[in-house]
Amino acid sequence: MTRLSDFPITTRWPAAHPECIQLYSLNTPNGVKASIMLEETGLAYEPHLVDIMKDESHTAEFLALNPNGKIPAIIDPDGPGGEPLALFESGAILLYLADKTGQFIPADAARRWETIQWVFFQMASIGPIFGQLGFFNKFAGKSYEDKRPLQRYVDESKRLLGVLDVRLEGRRWIMGDDYTIADIATLGWVNNLITFYEARELVKFDTFANVTAWLDRGLARPAVQRGLLIPSRA
């Protein structure tokens, strides 16, 4: 039988509560998907700060859990069949926790797949594009003389916000009345775009009335507020 202590990552980040889900993360837009979901479901978990600015996600111990060297990752000591399960990729973690708890994903097969497609929309489009906009607007790319890359990601970010805005017309949440993993996947990225990436005016965010109202509703949820800070650097 596999034990939690068999995972090399536990030597660097020891588990004080080995019976709980172990979260290895940082409160980035990808990282908070896992922490918000864990807060929303009420599952017992233990967060471990993996400081990507100190390259901790590329240590041998972390790479043994996620060979791609990205946060978040989890180990559930009570996985399928009662065996520990290690998972990386934030979308996979959301789907796993939704299925484990029966929360935040519709039971109806058609609506389940509709929800999953919007999770993939975030994973494939919103995350990569918003991340590139952040690079060119705030980080090293800001000093590039050629502003065409920045404009390309501004335009594409506005287009994606438009897609989301149309989807939210007449809906409280991406799936209508039901708050789901599609919202959990997307809230952190949209919030990050206009706060940490400082792109609110750049993408004319306030012209997307449905998105702004949806974001306000999401940020009003106590579990979202807690999850956005877990695990944060001191």
UniProtKB/TrEMBL annotation:
Residues annotated as transmembrane: none
Pfam families registered for this protein in UniProt: GST_C, GST_N_2
Transferase as UniProt keyword: yes
SUPFAM superfamilies reported in the protein's UniProt record: GST C-terminal domain-like (SSF47616), Thioredoxin-like (SSF52833)
Record GO terms (molecular function): transferase activity
Residue span(s) of domain GST C-terminal: 108-234
UniProtKB keywords: Transferase
Span of domain GST N-terminal: 18-105
InterPro entries, per the entry: Glutathione-S-Trfase_C-like (IPR010987), Glutathione-S-Trfase_C_sf (IPR036282), Glutathione_S-Trfase (IPR040079), Glutathione_S-Trfase_N (IPR004045), GST_C (IPR004046), Thioredoxin-like_sf (IPR036249)
CDD domains in UniProt: GST_C_Ure2p_like, GST_N_Ure2p_like
Protein name as it appears in the record: Glutathione S-transferase
Organism for this UniProt entry: Rhodanobacter glycinis
Organism phylogeny: Bacteria, Pseudomonadati, Pseudomonadota, Gammaproteobacteria, Lysobacterales
